[in-house]
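seq as requested:
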Amino acid sequence: MINQLEKQIGDYRQWREQIAAAIADYRDWLDLAGASDALQDLRLYDMAESVKHDRLVLAFVAEFARGKTETINALFFSDYKTRLLPCDAGRTTMCPTEIFWDANEEPYVKLLPIETRKNDDSIALLKRTPAAWTKLRLDTSSADAMQQAFHALVQQKEVSLDEARALGLWDDQDVMMVQSMQSKGKVDVPLWRHALINFPHPLLKSGLVILDTPGLNTLGTEPELTINIIPSAHAVIFLLATDTGVTKSDMTIWTSFIRDRTSRKLAVLNKIDILWDDLKSPQEVQEMIQSQIESTARQLSIPAGDVFAISAQKALLARVRGDAALLAKSGIDKLEQTLAQNVIAGKHAILRGTILAETGNMVKSSRKTFQQRVAASRAQLAELNALRGKNRDVVQKLLDKVSADRRVYEESIRTYTQSNQKVTQMGEVLMQQLSINRLDQMLDASREEIGDSWTTHGLNRSMKRLILQTTELAEGITRQGLEIKQLGDELYQLFHTRHGFEARTPPRLDMTGFHQSMQALVRTTDEFCDDPLNVVTEKHFLIRKFFFSLVAQARAVFEVAHHDVNLWLKGLLAPLKLQIAEHKTQLDKRTEALMNVHENLDSLQKSIAEVETQYATLQSQSAALDQILLKLMKASQTGAVAPEAAIAATEGPDLGMAPLLA
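struct tokens:
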């Protein structure tokens, strides 16, 4: 039984494959046309790979006993006709769990020991440290074997008070912990800190990643979850229980970890089957459910259309039994429909826009280069045809003109070389400011600002200082970027004026994203430090963890900025370099043809035939490029403009080329 969610994710995978194929065709075309550039080829390869392996992350967040894991079973794993992930009473996921598919490795369950909390290494870093994990093989041919392997997710162990404190898991406000310590002298803690499941499910193969997070206690003690992992999800599904409504701990999770941390969030009221009453009419039951939905929407301050009422247990049972009526009554279809139509479609639109913005611009640039080639070839053909019946003096005059053009070109090249060297030097200085070494210096200063006390006050003060430094850094880089851009503007204008190159204005270096990302870390810090519980209690362990999570996030922001600025620098003069190379090639061809004719007027017809062949080849290559652009735009179109019209709108006249789409 293929539901709409499965179909949409499958369609999304096929669409990504179409985009990747179009990019591969473009790379092949560049190679065959002799227009390949190493930097551009590498970038196209990276884009094709990122499209093929793009992932859609759905994070499921809830307090304990809300039916979160059962919902995951019902949505994604009902084909196994059993409850695959453990979610019996008192047996629910104890550690954050990521479920995905990596074809480069065998199916497995990897478990990160809880003891790794004693050091300052982030989960992201530990993911790159295989020796830190306990690995279990996953026998996907047996549902029983998989259930047994997944049982590890619920494992706990008893530890002393000192050990619980060393792990940062003791909370003297937790009534159950206090009672356990009083009665047994020990407390239960999860055996594992984090779990990774590599599982060859069709939806996971299509790029879906499921993040299953435990309750409030885990969210509160793993800042990396709340700072990075959950906010990076493409949608957060927040589970509530119909029988409890929105509890105080539910509201804490919502306000602290979801409400302002992600743009796409859905609330799911689970266990609506407790409202099913044979003594009430279906309409009365539906009115009760709708009342619960509206009440939940008001409490969370979200549209009622983003609240869904389901029974995950009945949905799973219905799919195991093939009971269509029970499945419809469970309400899960509506949730699946929204995930399919809104969340996946939204991710689709983001990726589509990125591909159109970058790959489309590359293809358009190639078209313009070929227009230049065709125009030059046609002009050369006209020049040679005009020599029919002429003497050597006429040919010599044309050679003199070409020589004059070459002298002007060589003078322009000297200017270009000098300016390009200056751009390179300024770019190196600019890139050094975004180096990890520079960030480490700022982070060391922030760490010294906190000192040894690890208080919320020290944390807040140090982060404010860090953001002030990065703000000044962004402003300085922006100013340097404008200076570099001005040099680029002058070069483009020089070649436009002297040689008729396309008039271009390279884009400005925009550091807005870098600045906003760093500012977001300040807001996250403010929220953490303003939390009354964190202000009142000197949670040294938690504050250290929070700080190092911020450090990991700051590193990621710097890496993105470093990558983006590097691309901007490399792309600043790239179109001009292509036009210069093309111009030199055409000058050389024109000179060679005229010299051959000057030496032997009888070779004129041969030269004309050669140029005619070149002209026909260029037209054929242009037509092939247009088909690639059409394929790319058909796969990437928004539906607002027909692909043919979009191609026609990408640039001006075709300089006499054959009809593009004939």
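Residues 158-187 form one domain.
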